[in-house]
Amino acid sequence: MNTTWTPDSWRSLEAKHQPIWPDQAELEQALKTLGDQPPLVFAGEARDLTAQLGKVAQGEAFLLQAGDCAESFESSADSIRDRLRVILQMAIVLTYSGGTPLVKIGRIAGQFAKPRSSPTETKGGEELPSFLGQSVNDIGFTEAERRPDPQRLLAAYNRAASTLNLLRAFTRGGYADLSQVSTWNREFVASSPAGERYTQMADEIDRALTFMAACGVTGESVPALHEVDFFTSHEALLLNYEEALTRQDSLTGDWYDCSAHMLWIGERTRQLDGAHVEFLRGVQNPLGCKVGPTATPDEVLSLCEALNPDRVPGRLTLIVRQGADKVTEGLPPLLAAVRDSGHPVVWACDPMHGNTYESEVGVKTRHFDDVLKEISGFFAAHAQEGTWPGGVHVELTGDAVTECLGGSDDLVDGDLEHAYETMCDPRLNGRQSVDLAFRVAELLRARA
Ligand code: PEP
Ligand code: CO
Fold first, then answer.
1. Quick check: 185 pLDDT over 80?
2. Cα–Cα distance between 421 and 441 in angstroms, integer?
3. Which end of the chain has a smaller Cβ tally under 10 Å, C or N?
4. What's the rounded Cα separation, in Å, for the pair 328 and 88?
């Protein structure tokens, strides 16, 4: 692990969950083309995010990381806008109602590759490779669609570029102006309890903005009222792809993975002697690492040492996903070990991946109550250990899907068939997401 790092030093180690590409020459050609593409993000932006996350590590801000489980190449502009809108709505609720500055990161513009529990899927007696995300193969259940195709890596890059372009336009071009907060709410109005609560809050913000404008404070004088900082992230799963987009920063000489601002290591690929930890330790982007129910304090400390040996605040976010029933017992020993070691980490709660189960109608789902219970347990564990519950990491969409149960509309099993659209895990819909933000804001307020 302590040997010299290079963008390809991961290649001598075992890399789990990599596709078996049928045509090596075609893969090499695609990677070469990718290597010639412009970076998607600039090193200075990644440094800015590290600094913002540093504030979270120090207990001065809160992190919201949210977006799709697996993004689709076919997402419409409206769907991308609506996903951004829901994240911004949650951010407003957390900032206004929770009373803390917020760091906003999307699981977006690059979240196209998925690790799967089984390499194959069997349907009606036929066994085919599992769907590994659209940067590898397609979700359709035919041999041709499930064949890993290196051209998809290029398609993923192009799709990430156009999504990022749209996000930059929305967040810098006036859509995210604070005076728009009430217009973001059209779909929610009156018809849901979370929507009513949101309208009330938006009215209060409008009044505050009118007051501030009367005092001479406007979006022109204070850019933060007019624009938002919004960062991108995805699981750095396909190391070929990540390596091809890794560039040396001309200002500092440091290496950055320019496929996104933040990259995280998944629960299935966080082996200390594995290729993912090796690759990510050498890029200077802020990093995340999932921490599931089997992770021991020693393992977590070793990950901190490997990924953040210089103890830079904001460099490492530990994304805990233990499950609603395990977090209360499982998390405190991890918090205590990291606290006592002096490692400055951001602790984020992923209340989704430890709470997935098969519904009565045979599809994967999650219940809003379990999601909330894991977050409550996360806050309680931090209160017990005197550490800062730094943020939440959720899977959501702005589309009106019915994939997770419960929430203020109280979706039940029979509702799942109405709009079950996810390509991978079940996501909170817009109403459930805003509802969740109000609940998390209450937990934040209760801490103060
Ligand atoms: C995910 O975040 O979509 C995921 C696969 O999570 P995990 O690595 O925690 O299982
Ligand atoms: Co997922």
1. no
2. 29
3. C
4. 29
How many helices (H) and strands (E) are present in the chain, helices listed first? 12, 14
Ligand 2 centroid to residue 230 C-alpha, Å: 21
Domain ranges of the chain: 9-176+227-447
Of the candidates 405, 427, 34, the one whose C-alpha atom is nearest the C-alpha of residue 246 is: 34
Q: Please, which pLDDT band fits residue 33 given cuts at 50, 70 and 90?
A: very high
Ligand approaching nearest to the C-alpha of 428: 2
Q: Ligand 2 centre and the CA of 356: distance in Å?
A: 9
pTM: 0.97
- The tokens describing 152, both together, are 């998809």
- Read out DSSP for 77-138? HHHHHHHHHHHHHHHHHHHHTT-S-EEEEEEBSS------SSSEEEETTEEEEPP--TTT--
CATH number, span 9-176+227-447: 3.20.20.70
Ligand 1 centroid to Cα of residue 44, in Å, is 27
Q: Which two tokens stand for residue 194?
A: 């979370």
The response to whether residue 68 sits with its C-beta less than 6 Å from ligand 1 reads: no
Ligand 1 atom closest to the CA of 111, numbered from 1: 3
**17 CB within 6 A, ligand 1:** no
Two tokens at 447? 């801490």
| pLDDT tens digits, 282-334 | 999 999 999 999 999 999 999 999 999 999 999 999 999 999 999 999 999 99
